[in-house]
Automatic annotation (TrEMBL):
Organism (species): Candidatus Woesebacteria bacterium GW2011_GWA2_40_7b
Record field: transmembrane: none
Annotated ranges, domain Methyltransferase type: 63-153
GO molecular function: S-adenosylmethionine-dependent methyltransferase activity
Protein name: Methyltransferase type 11 domain-containing protein
InterPro entries in the cross-refs: Methyltransf_11, SAM-dependent_MTases_sf
Secretion signal, residue range per the UniProt entry: none
Length: 356
């Protein structure tokens, strides 16, 4: 695959700040959503249900510093592991932390990675697919590399792409934030700024909204547990008011519990989208006859996105258009949009004709 891919080699932006799942109450909320028991974490649940006998060889996607493959080996969920990441810094750190564990590390771009067929009986996606540009291609590669009786474990952000939340979702989120006391309210709550996201990490949630559909083309989802986030995630993540002293107060715990209850209610009623999901999948015995067509559609999508400021929708393109102050730049963007949109439509139509 020779096409240019979107990737981020700056490992320093990851593992920074406090996320919602760092809070004990949120951990309980997530645990109960997945396992039915707020005191049983998803890793323990997975081991008890799927790994009473350890898997032989696991593959870990976009592994970062290697935390999950180390934990899975230490918990005897899997005997050996292969893991890859695009960041040389992360691979170097993971190697230092590997110890004597049987883990092979590969420096690879998820959008281009090549894997042996029928090699792994466990594949683990922990917050990896939402950084993948060519997600259809990767899911196809993963399906080929999984043994027929293997398991594909996913726990990922599956919410709106690039955190560009629906307006109703955002208005409810802001309203709920304003009901919190001053010492818990997120004072820096602002709609995610697309130009900044593209500048700091263009892979962040690039196709998060396509994860479930993409996986479903090549795998059968046999178990799915949504863990919400549509209200609580943005309020509790990078909230500078939430220090250990504050969150340990009885009143604070009460307000956080109410926030999580609202998160569950609004998510269950489908008023806000699901942000995070835990799901298990198995390899399909037969492939969709449209596999080649789906890949062609993805290739067309990515080809023209790179020509249109790395955007995929008219709304996002207009956000980028507004961001640039130069009228010369705006004029070029307008021309590009007209030309490349017509070219994209023509390409999609030709692809459709070939596969009907």
């Amino acid at each position: 695959m020779a096409a240019k891919t979107v990737k981020n080699l700056n490992s320093k932006i990851y593992y920074q700040g406090q996320y919602w799942n760092d809070l004990p109450q949120v951990q309980n909320y997530i645990a109960k959503s997945i396992t039915g028991d707020e005191n049983k974490w998803w890793v323990e649940y997975f081991k008890q249900k799927y790994a009473t006998t350890p898997f032989h060889h696991g593959l870990f996607l976009n592994c970062g510093d290697g935390r999950w493959e180390r934990e899975f080996i230490d918990r005897k969920i899997v005997k050996t592991a292969t893991a890859f990441d695009v960041s040389p810094d992360f691979i170097k750190k993971a190697l230092l932390l590997r110890g004597k564990r049987k883990i092979e590390y590969i420096l690879a771009d998820a959008n281009k990675v090549k894997l042996p067929k029928n090699k792994y009986d466990l594949i683990v996606n922990y917050a990896a697919l939402h950084h993948t540009q060519y997600i259809n291609r990767l899911c196809n590669v993963l399906a080929n590399s999984l043994t027929q009786d293997g398991i594909f474990l996913n726990f990922d952000y599956v919410g709106p792409s690039r955190n560009q939340y629906p307006i109703v979702n955002w208005l409810i989120l802001k309203l709920v934030n304003n009901t919190l006391p001053k010492n818990l309210k997120k004072t820096t709550l602002g709609y995610p700024h697309l130009p900044t996201m593209l500048a700091t990490d263009p892979t962040e949630a690039i196709h998060s909204n396509l994860i479930v559909d993409s996986v479903s083309r090549f795998f059968n989802i046999t178990e799915k547990r949504n863990t919400g986030g549509g209200i609580a995630y943005e309020i509790l993540t990078h909230n500078t008011n939430l220090n250990k002293k504050i969150i340990s107060l009885k009143k604070s715990k009460k307000h956080i519990q109410r926030l999580l209850k609202l998160d569950r209610i609004f998510t269950t009623l489908k008023i806000v989208p699901v942000y995070f999901s835990f799901f298990i999948a198995s390899k399909k015995s037969q492939r969709d006859v449209k596999t080649a067509y789906f890949q062609q559609i993805e290739n067309i999508r990515e080809k023209y996105s790179l020509k249109l400021e790395n955007t995929y929708t008219l709304f996002n393109f207009l956000v980028m258009f507004k961001h640039y102050r130069s009228w010369r730049k705006r004029a070029k963007m307008t021309g590009d949009y007209m030309i490349y949109t017509l070219a994209r439509v023509a390409s999609l139509f030709l692809a459709f004709l070939k596969h009907i």
